[in-house]
Amino acid sequence: MPPRIVFLDRETLPVPVRAVSVPHEWVHYPQTSAQDVVARLAGAQVAITNKVPLNAATMGALPELKLIAVAATGYNQVDLTAARAQGVTVCNIRDYAIAGVAEHTLMLMLALKRQLPAYRNAVAAGEWQRAPGFCVFGAPMHDLAGATLVLVGSGTLAKATARLAQAFGMQIVYAERKGASQVRDGYLAFDEALAHADVLSLHCPLTEQTRNSIGARELALLKPGCVLINTARGGLVDEPALLAALQQGQLGGAGLDVLIEEPPRNGNPLLEVNLPNLIITPHVAWASVETMSVLAGQLIDNIEAFLRGEPRNVVCGV
Ligand SMILES: NC(=O)c1ccc[n+]([C@@H]2O[C@H](COP(=O)([O-])OP(=O)(O)OC[C@H]3O[C@@H](n4cnc5c(N)ncnc54)[C@H](O)[C@@H]3O)[C@@H](O)[C@H]2O)c1
Ligand SMILES: O=C(O)[C@H](O)CO
Description:
This is Glycerate dehydrogenase. This protein is of the alpha/beta class. The protein is built from eleven helices and 13 strands. The two termini are 22 Å apart. The chain has helices at residues 37-41, 56-60, 80-86, 98-113, 116-124, 156-167, 190-196, 216-221, 239-247, 269-272, 289-307; strands at 4-7, 25-28, 46-49, 67-70, 89-91, 148-152, 171-175, 187-188, 199-202, 227-230, 253-256, 278-280, 314-316. 38% of the residues are buried. Bound molecules: nicotinamide-adenine-dinucleotide and (2R)-2,3-dihydroxypropanoic acid. Residues 73-74, 97, 101, 152-158, 177, 203-205, 209-210, 231-233, 257-258, 283, 285-286 line the site of nicotinamide-adenine-dinucleotide. Nicotinamide-adenine-dinucleotide (NAD) is lined by residues 73-74, 97, 101, 152-158, 177, 203-205, 209-210, 231-233, 257-258, 283, 285-286.
């Protein structure tokens, strides 16, 4: 019997995906809700998920499942402990969003440091037309050149962001893991790094160690006017604490590509406030056509490699 491959949320990858090159049965669904996962994966050897959660109860009901091919770098939607216990291999996509996420991160930094939303709003409101002089002075604008960028995480996307930021003349500091007993060469202790930041950008996975790692205490360590960028996962940041820091003027701004709940069907206070120094994009840092196409190719490479007995990009194996 050829392996059955089921893509649970095909709609989340709106680019062509080439066919797997060995005999197989392919089924895809635009989206899959939690209550439909088990029925749709029944008899499947390979499950593809971008953001559909796969938990212990689901895997326990799917004895034939052998591979979860995550169509993303972040795999926080998959219960790895359960996968290990069930003998299910999990693989992910790596190094695909070097241009996409780094450019998006720099875009958010530039827009916030140069007050793009505030000046755009001023022009739209007719302030330039009424101005006494040739330009309009409003919110104070700052250059990236000479500013310090602190990175949490030092993997592919942190380094790609660092390369672009260096081209803008920024100083780069890598933060050691929060709570680490040793500080590696080339890093500053977490709290010390935060205190140096003109821009703090998050590029680590969401795990039980990193969840809520930027809360009220950490936001208070930042210099007044510091800008926070999160293109990693919403759960890294305590959202009520972030909102309070923005409303109290403690932060210079925030650029978020991710929220704790996605899509935010139950609302989110960050989406309700209309602050010019808060820019929220709907988890699209990776979504340039070029970047998504690299992901699509690697997804099939991963599945083909697993089917010929040479699993790659393994996050958790058997
Ligand atoms: N918004 C988007 O479109 C988008 C796209 C791709 C990836 N992402 C997110 O970005 C994250 C980073 O991607 P990447 O390709 O750089 O991954 P990566 O695996 O190359 O790097 C992750 C880095 O995080 C570090 N890390 C792990 N645990 C940590 C901890 N407790 N504290 C601090 N650092 C820790 C690792 O050591 C590593 O340096 C992904 O996990 C994913 O959640 C978002
Ligand atoms: O982790 C990733 O690769 C992004 O969130 C896109 O799914």
